[in-house]
Specification:
The structure holds two protein chains of two kinds.
Chain A lengths: L4 E3 L2 E4 L5 E6 L6 E7 L6 E7 L2 E4 L8 E4 L6 E5 L8 E8 L8 E2 L3 E5 L1
Parallel strand pairs in A: 2-11
Antiparallel strand pairs in A: 1-3, 3-8, 4-5, 4-9, 5-6, 7-8, 9-10, 9-11
Chain B lengths: L3 E4 L2 E5 L4 E7 L4 E9 L5 E8 L4 E4 L2 E6 L4 E6 L8 E9 L4 E3 L3 E6 L1
Parallel strand pairs in B: 2-11
Antiparallel strand pairs in B: 1-3, 3-8, 4-5, 4-9, 6-7, 7-8, 9-10, 9-11
Classes of the chains: A mainly beta, B mainly beta.
């Protein structure tokens, strides 16, 4: 079974530039998550999709971050404009819907803002 | 809001020792709890999933327990090996299907 695919693996940008990350979840997984993991911390949920609808985006800095999941499959997360404090690993995860299901994570995108 | 705490933050043990990692959470209304392993610069690898109705799960040298009423889980690693060196994260799945993570325990197994 193919896992969660993310690209790019690494990205270095200057502050105030824009950047986009892509995620392709495991086939059939209706729920998709984007997490931000700052060095030395646990992952923090940015946004949760159920199919192509947003379930929770309460911790997404909406003035600079946006995400979409058109057609309920793959998803993109965008930052515009980037700040130094956005330097982190951005993790995408997916799962089947249901209380008994397991989450699977991609390899992540390491973003460095200079 | 769910708060997840992991103790200790870092642990260093000699090869062959058995060890226990701890995870506590504040809201017992959870669907399940998952333990993950994270190697430097990598994503999260799922180790064990415990449903809210279960008390423990085992996989090889790993055993995870869950006491939902007291908001605690432990991950027991038997006969540790240098290859076990990594950061271990626990995550609880809330009733809104979101996952709340602890800050992790960084484990070093010394040959």
């Amino acid at each position: 079974e193919a896992g969660v695919a993310q690209s790019p693996r690494y990205k270095i940008i200057e502050k105030r530039q824009s950047v986009a990350f892509w995620c392709n979840p495991i086939s059939g997984h209706a729920t998709l998550y984007w997490y931000q993991q700052i060095l030395g911390q646990g992952p923090k949920l940015l946004i949760q999709f159920q199919n192509n609808g947003v379930v929770d985006d309460s911790q997404l800095p909406k003035d600079r971050f946006s995400a979409e999941r058109l057609k309920g499959v793959d998803s993109t997360l965008k930052i515009q404009p980037a700040k130094l404090e956005d330097s982190a690993v951005y993790l995408c995860a997916s799962s089947f819907t249901g209380r008994d299901t397991e989450a699977f994570f991609g390899q992540g995108t390491r973003l460095t803002v200079v | 809001k769910q708060e997840v705490t992991q103790i200790p933050a870092a642990l260093s043990v000699p090869e062959g020792e058995n060890l226990v990692l701890n995870c506590s959470f504040t809201d017992s209304a959870i669907y399940n709890l998952q333990w993950f392993r994270q190697d430097p610069g990598k994503g999260l690898t799922s180790l064990l999933l415990i449903q809210s109705s279960q008390r423990e799960q085992t996989s090889g040298r790993l055993n995870a327990s869950l006491d939902k009423s007291s908001g605690r889980s432990t991950l027991y690693i038997a006969a540790s090996q240098p290859g076990d060196s990594a950061t271990y994260l626990c995550a609880v799945r809330g009733t809104g299907n979101q996952f709340y993570f602890g800050t992790g325990t960084s484990l070093t197994v010394i040959p």
